[in-house]
Automatic annotation (TrEMBL):
GO BP terms: protein ubiquitination; regulation of autophagosome assembly; ubiquitin-dependent protein catabolic process
Keywords: Endosome, Metal-binding, Transferase, Ubl conjugation pathway, Zinc, Zinc-finger
Residues annotated as domain SIAH-type: 111-171
Spans traversing the lipid bilayer: none
Taxonomy, superkingdom: Eukaryota
Signal peptide (residue range): none
Keyword Glycoprotein: no
Family per similarity comment: Belongs to the SINA (Seven in absentia) family.
Main localisation: cytoplasm
Domain spans labelled RING-type: 58-94
Protein name in the entry: RING-type E3 ubiquitin transferase
Physiological role: E3 ubiquitin-protein ligase that mediates ubiquitination and subsequent proteasomal degradation of target proteins. E3 ubiquitin ligases accept ubiquitin from an E2 ubiquitin-conjugating enzyme in the form of a thioester and then directly transfers the ubiquitin to targeted substrates. It probably triggers the ubiquitin-mediated degradation of different substrates. Mediates the proteasomal-dependent degradation of ATG6, a component of the autophagosome complex. Requires TRAF1A/MUSE14 and TRAF1B/MUSE13 to target ATG6 for ubiquitination and subsequent regulation of autophagosome assembly.
Length: 306
């Protein structure tokens, strides 16, 4: 585990000693009592959460600790990240940390069951401490990231919060209806930068959809791309389909697809080319005129699959 020889031995010797101590000194009933009293804290953890969290919270970074949980010779606990960060010097008492695991706390944590941290957002799952983190990474109640591309927006929230945020802070256009007809006009289409993009939000079937339009370099070739993202989870996004059309002069390009959930980042969808991709030459041809201006009319429709 640990890179240095002597430290590594120390870590390895600890579990052995601890197991031995339990096996020989503690009568069976005693260890059962200990375990069940820990279990009690877990099952009724909702009321006693604060104390439990405090105990398992790293005093330095305030994150919940996961094995290996370390402690100094005086018993101050610390997460592995912080242990590495403080150069082995206990931030509480300044003693050399050494390589001492806090097995008691690790086992205590193992016996706990805690509510998902998105409890207040509607998740009622109660989870073993060590699977909690994994669940929370995929919990369907976890907040969404702001779907606005092109800026590093750190706002997260549920869908109504994000809709208000898009409207108020990003000044995004909001439309009602399941069909759309959108014009994209851009001067100097020959300057294709990665940062050229537009977002419009459509509300239909009581849900919101983000229509993205952007210009970027795909390999060496400048392209335009339009695609739809669903403001909700993937399982629901799959219930919808959409089509996009662009054209002029008797030619037309169409795309039919399934909106992607905004759980998938804007960039991920773009890079997978899951949308209407228009080569620049064709885009300029569709724009008509002198190729000095990009003028595309994109029409589309969203429908619900039976
Ligand atoms: Zn920490
Ligand atoms: Zn200490
Ligand atoms: Zn959850
Ligand atoms: Zn935002």
């Amino acid at each position: 585990m640990a890179p240095e020889g002597s430290a590594c031995k120390e870590v390895e010797s600890y579990p052995a000693v601890a197991d031995y101590a339990i096996a020989t000194r503690k009568p069976e009933s005693n260890s059962m009592t200990t375990k069940s009293s820990f279990g009690f804290v877990g099952k009724h953890g909702i009321q006693s959460n604060n104390g439990v969290y405090e105990l398992l919270e790293c005093p330095v970074c305030k994150n919940l600790m996961y094995p290996p949980i370390h402690q100094c010779p005086n018993g101050h606990t610390l997460c592995l990240n912080c242990k590495n960060r403080v150069h082995n010097c206990c931030p509480s008492c300044r003693y050399d940390l050494g390589n001492i695991r806090c097995l008691a706390l690790e086992r205590f944590a193992e016996s706990l069951e805690l509510p998902c941290k998105y409890h207040s957002l509607g998740c009622h799952e109660i989870l073993p401490y060590y699977s909690k983190l994994k669940h929370e990474q995929h919990c369907r109640f976890r907040p969404y990231n702001c779907p606005y591309a092109g800026s590093d927006c750190s706002i997260t929230g549920d869908i109504p919060t994000l809709i208000a945020h898009l409207k108020d802070d990003h000044k995004v256009d909001m439309h009602d209806g399941c069909t759309f007809n959108h014009r994209y006009v851009k001067l100097n289409p020959h300057e294709v930068e990665n940062a050229t993009w537009m977002l419009t939000v459509f509300k239909c079937f009581g849900k919101q959809f983000c229509l993205h339009f952007e210009a970027f370099q795909m390999g060496m070739a400048p392209v335009y791309m339009a695609f739809l993202r669903f403001m909700g989870d993937d399982s629901e996004a799959k219930k919808f389909s959409y089509c996009l059309e662009v054209g002029a002069n008797g030619r037309k390009l169409t795309w039919q697809g399934i909106p992607r959930s905004i759980r998938d980042s804007h960039r991920k969808v773009r890079d997978s080319q899951d949308g209407l991709v228009i080569q620049r030459n064709l885009a300029l041809y569709f724009s008509g005129g002198d190729r000095l201006e990009l003028k595309l009319r994109i029409t589309g429709r969203i429908w619900k699959e039976a």
